[in-house]
Amino acid sequence: MTTGDLDPLIHVPTRLKIVATLAALPDGDTLSFTRLQDMIGLTPGNLIIHLRKLEEADYINSTKTSNGTVSITTVALTGHGRAALGTYTQALRNLLDGL
Amino acid sequence: MNPTPDTTAGNGFDPREAAALLDQTRRQARRQFEPAQPWLLAIRAVLVLATLGTVWLSVRGQHPYQGPRASALLIVAAFVIINYTATVAVRARATAGVSGKSRFTPAEITILAAAWIAPYVVMVALGVTRDSQSGYLLTVPLIVAGLAFAALMAGRADWRQCGIGLAVAVTGAAGAAAGQAGAWAVTGIGLCLTLLGSAAVIAWQLHRA
User: Fold this and answer.
1) What residues pair up with B36 in beta bridges, in sequence order?
2) What is the mean pLDDT of chain B?
3) Which residue of A6, A56, B11, B204 is surrounded by the most CB atoms within 10 Å?
4) What letter does residue A12 receive in the DSSP assignment?
5) How far apart are CA B82 and CA A34, in angstroms?
6) Residue B163: closest CA among B147, B143, B175
7) Torsions phi, psi of B184, nearest 5?
8) Which residues of chain A neighbour B15 with C-beta distances below 8 Å?
């Protein structure tokens, strides 16, 4: 097994942090963009770039809601994303066991 | 439309660093999302034992039992308010920005509030208000609120919290069986052990990967 076998979408420090953070929430829970940004420590623009990549792969869902004056974006890991993280974690474990 | 360039491709991302980062991120996230922090639970355990133990020391020699002095009840009331305020503040910080099953629904909040208030209302209506019966005013609400909390948590399949609710109810029952004066000591010890046990379980869960 080599590093090339690891999911390239997740095997990036920032996206790994994003996915691992969202995975800490119970299935069905969502996290606001602001809270995620605060926990990951990224600028909004940088975070949006990474979230877009994850959403294109159906690893996360993002929803924008508005109550008229305030717009809130929430993010959640999809089932596909959880499975992908599980696969990545196992592949990482196998790779490190083989080193 | 040009695709967003991935300028942060992980080609040079060492797998060992990735494993360490994954582990660290998981633990930090679990800690930040946990509404019941072990350190706060441990402090509450000590405070509840000290508060109820102090009341017990003030009533244990009473024959017949007359109940704690107003000053002792004020201390208990102050502890309840501080405890509630701290719990709500820590929970609010942990769940900030989180939506979904983690949050209590308005119906659940109503049930929990009613579980605390209703026993007092019923006991007052039944005339259980004399100082010599103050042990029941401590233990009966714990039984009712503990069972209500356990039932709600069982409905959410949150077995850790369900266990806490049952432990609180058992503590209330044991306190009620210990007599009016003994209720303060037994309840103090039972709640202290429940909080310490909960702190230990949460600390273990947060520590594992």
Assistant:
1) none
2) 88
3) A6
4) S
5) 29
6) B147
7) -65, -45
8) 3, 6, 92, 95-96, 99
- CB distance from B26 to chain A under 8 Å? yes
Nearest to B177 by CA among B185, B147, B50: B185
Tell me the backbone φ, ψ of residue A44, rounded to 5 degrees. -55, -45
Distance CA B181, CA B175 (A): 9
What's at B95, amino acid-wise? T
Q: Do A16 and B96 touch (CB under 8 A)?
A: no
Per-residue tokens: B47: 């405070």
H-helix or E-strand containing B14?
A: none
CB-facing half-sphere around the CA of B24: CA atoms within 13 A: 11
Residues B209 and B205: their CA atoms lie apart, in Å, by 8
State the distance between the two ends of chain B, measured CA to CA, in whole angstroms: 41
- Please tell me if residue A30 touches chain B, with a CB cutoff of 8 Å: yes
Task: Check if the beta carbon of residue A73 is closer than 8 Å to that of residue A62.
Answer: yes
DSSP A69: S
What was the pLDDT predicted at B3? Answer: 42
DSSP B95-134: TTTEESTTSPPHHHHHHHHHHHHHHHHHHHHTTTTSGGGH
**Chain A residues closer than 8 Å to B33 by CB:** 24-25
Judge contact between B25 and A21, C-beta under 8 A.
yes
Query: DSSP assignment of B140-197, as one string?
Result: HHHHHHHHHHHHHHHHTT-HHHHHHHHHHHHHHHHHHHTHHHHHHHHHHHHHHHHHHH
Tens digits of per-residue pLDDT, B115-160?
989 998 888 888 877 766 778 888 999 999 999 999 999 999 999 9
The span from the CA of A33 to the CA of A51, in Å, is 10
